[in-house]
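Bug report (template v2)

What were you trying to do?
Predict the complex of my protein with S-adenosylmethionine.

What happened?
Run completed; filing so the output is reviewed.

Input:
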Amino acid sequence: MKAAKKLPLTDECHHWRKIGEVPWDLQKYWQQRHTIFSYYNEGVYMTHDAWYGVTPEPVANQIAWELPKTVSDDKTVIIDLFAGVGANAIAFALSERWERVIAIEKDPSTLACAQHNAELYGVSEYITWINGDNFEYMKLLNSSPSSLEDAIKVDVDKTVLFGSPPWGGPGYSTDEIFDLSTMEPYNLATMHEAYRSMDHALFLPRTSDLRQIAQLAPKGTKIEVVQYCVEGASKAMVAYIPGAIQPGGQTTAVDPKETENT
Ligand SMILES: C[S@@+](CC[C@H](N)C(=O)[O-])C[C@H]1O[C@@H](n2cnc3c(N)ncnc32)[C@H](O)[C@@H]1O
């Protein structure tokens, strides 16, 4: 696996200036474009689906400010596992907290938008981009790091993961409590299996079932869960989950019966 070069914007990438250009199903999101990206008018590009899943800039900035408080100071690398059009990766780079920011996105058009948007914010060169599947990356990192190009190799003891996965589309749930075992295309168990060895923060639906999240706490640790609001309304929650393997290789077993939780 390799770092991505600068990818070209494609027909899937748009910068809409007038409401008449915007598909009807996206018009309510487009009305919030300046909250989503304060540099929108500078020429921010989005794909159609990105409007549903992008992290609004104030939330991305708040997460970038708060996440470091949940991990030890010797963590110097952050990986955005689902980079989308770049809102979180840009905020992590702008925070100047990290020596390296790595951003993984599997869709080339979406990644092209992210790279372009990061240029507008003046941080593209501080981000290492990967056009690929983060589960594949994590597998290689853990089992065969030599198959990763040097530019995307990291010291796992110094690395933190951030993941804002798809939630299953705009109508992801009308349930009062969102069952994370049914989340599409990746449920909580799938992500936890892939990320559990390292400190990781997951950006999840605001109504996510806290009991399911609490089960993930490695023995003797706590998971912090924070609701992020824009104009008084919660947009999402982030679960800050300690890694099960502490630096030096000690494994902390997950024992649901003994977990302290949120
Ligand atoms: C909810 S969006 C992320 C939004 C992002 N935080 C932002 O602010 O733009 C999820 C993204 O993950 C990408 N994705 C889905 N599965 C992936 C995978 N296995 N590896 C990497 N990216 C993936 C999708 O293409 C989509 O762009």
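What did the reviewer find?
Residues 19-258 form a domain with the Rossmann fold fold (CATH 3.40.50.150). Residues 50, 53-55, 82, 84-88, 104-107, 110, 133-135, 164-166 surround S-adenosylmethionine (CB under 6 Å).
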